[in-house]
TrEMBL record:
One of its GO terms (molecular function) is hydrolase activity. This is ZC12D ribonuclease. The keyword S-adenosyl-L-methionine does not apply. Residues 251-276 form the C3H1-type domain. CDD domains: PIN_Zc3h12-like. Signal peptide: none annotated. Its cofactor is Mg(2+). Keywords: Endonuclease, Hydrolase, Magnesium, Metal-binding, Nuclease, Zinc, Zinc-finger.
């Protein structure tokens, strides 16, 4: 038990001396979580984090030299990869191909257009799911165009064939939609399809929420892949925030009141009034009451003085 725990925490990068001290204090039967908490409390850090904390010495480069080694970076350059902030993309290949072919032809060129669109945005994890029987020669009842694109995407590890087989001359096809939703759910990504997957929504309540919030619909306009700018409606996030893990919230913009000075809503008005930026927004009736109370109070004070 001691050796297994020692090997486990050594793989995490902690020193053997620190691990032995903690095991002596807590005992050999201590849980791994307790040992890890004690290591953190002692201030012990993995070797990888210690190496990152130490500043690497800068190397001098001759003036005019254009050679850049992978270890050298310009000062002030952001080392974080932009692709880390983008969500994984899972494409329903059959839905995209049939949409591009006007529901008559399985157009592989439509899949290529969708993949290129996400590549240009910087997405690195892109998976396309297509049934395996689409690899067979086309038939009259199921025509396919540009079938060589599927082979190219498969070589690039982008295309994934869902399994199928023949039993007594009949084709047995696995449900590819379940593959699509399951992979997208596990990767916390986005599903690209015009299908609503209602049967899978009823099957799993977690999938229902995920499909409602992470389904990206699209359209093809003159061989151009075009997803909507507001995937979840007018009041939902923008397309950039929808496809990114860390959405950027827009600054609040105050819309001026369409009624202007004639507005009678007062402090209940949700719009901006430039004529009263630092004043409490009172209704017209309250403003009139406030103006009337001032002279009445002054008149009462004069009467008391005369008495």
């Amino acid at each position: 038990v001691h050796q297994s725990k020692l090997d486990f925490f050594c793989k995490l990068g902690y020193g053997k001396q620190d691990i032995c001290k903690v095991l002596e204090n807590l005992g050999q039967e201590a849980l791994e979580d307790d040992v890890l908490k004690e290591l953190i409390r002692m201030g012990s850090k993995p070797q990888a984090l210690e190496n990152q904390a130490q500043p690497s010495p800068l190397k001098l480069v001759a003036r005019g030299s254009c050679s850049t080694s992978p270890g050298l970076k310009w000062l002030g350059e952001d080392e974080s990869d932009s692709s880390d902030h983008l969500r994984p993309i899972v494409i329903d290949g059959s839905n995209v191909a049939m949409s591009h072919g006007n529901k008559e032809i399985f157009s592989c060129w439509g899949i290529q257009l969708a993949v290129d669109w996400f590549r240009e945005r910087g997405h690195t994890y892109i998976k396309v799911f297509v049934p395996l029987w689409r690899k067979e020669p086309p038939r009259q009842d199921s025509p396919i165009s540009d079938q060589h694109i599927l082979e190219e995407l498969e070589k690039q590890s982008i295309l994934v064939y869902t399994p199928c087989r023949k039993v007594k001359g009949k084709r047995v096809v696995c449900y590819d939609d379940r593959y699509i939703v399951k992979v997208a759910y596990e990767k916390d990504g986005v599903i690209v399809s015009n299908d609503h997957y209602r049967d899978l929504q009823n099957e799993n309540p977690e999938w229902k929420w995920f499909i409602e919030q992470r389904l990206l619909m699209y359209s093809f306009v003159s061989n151009r892949f075009m997803p909507p700018d507001d995937p979840l409606g007018r009041h939902g996030p923008t397309l950039n925030n929808f496809l990114s893990k860390k959405p950027v919230l827009p600054e609040p913009k105050w819309q001026p009141c369409p009624y202007g000075k004639k507005c009678t809503y007062g402090n209940k008005c949700k719009f901006y009034h430039p004529e009263r930026p630092h004043q409490v927004q009172l209704s017209v009736a309250d403003e009139l009451r406030a103006k009337i109370k001032v002279p009445l109070n002054l008149g009462k004070e004069e009467e008391q003085r005369n008495r």
